[in-house]
Task: structure prediction
Amino acid sequence: MSAHALLDKARAAGVMLATAESCTGGLIAGALTDIPGASDVFDRAFVTYSNAAKIQMLGVDPAVIEAHGAVSDAVAQAMADGALARSDAGLVIAVTGVAGPGGSDRKPEGMVCFGLASAHHRRAETIQFGARGRSGVRDATVRRALRMMIAELDR
Result:
């Protein structure tokens, strides 16, 4: 599925979209805004690469970051919830992960946490994309995020 498909579904549903991105640095928003006319359903993007940005821009509780780490389902969900509350969007995707190179045994390269929030549904999940290089992880993350948002609009 593509950014075009997501924008078409959002238009049909009358839903505005937003993103909260860490490891992708705005690539999800970029994929959407590469398409002319996206502004009718794309509200905004929060690029919150640092923990301070997650706290300041999205209202993520520092205790959640301390307890779970920035790369966690809890932080991804808090990012999505914060973006939903701070935008005019009805559907938000948030991502935080280890694009690489590097990582750790607990949080290896390719581990990405996704948070999704809408007025009626919230969910978080972690995907292990594997060590496919920084651009490979980021590209896979964008594709997964678009699919998750499309699936949510299909619910």
User: Anything to note?
Assistant: The chain has six helices and five strands. The CA atoms of residues 38 and 122 lie 24 Å apart.
